[in-house]
Amino acid sequence: MTTSTQTFTTTRTSEGAKAILVAACLGLGLVFLAGFSPASALHNAAHDFRHTQNFPCH
User: Cα torsion at 34, 35, 38, 40 (round to 10°)?
Assistant: First the structure.
């Protein structure tokens, strides 16, 4: 009985860590794609948000 409880806790912890890693990668990817994109349409769409986050854009 102790072994199954220990396995469940380990699996649950590793799934949570994977979810956090995926969310962080997606979030950083969106920030850097919007921040460093040379396309004028994307730049204009993200311009105000970048200034509120103190992200340099010009």
Answer: 60
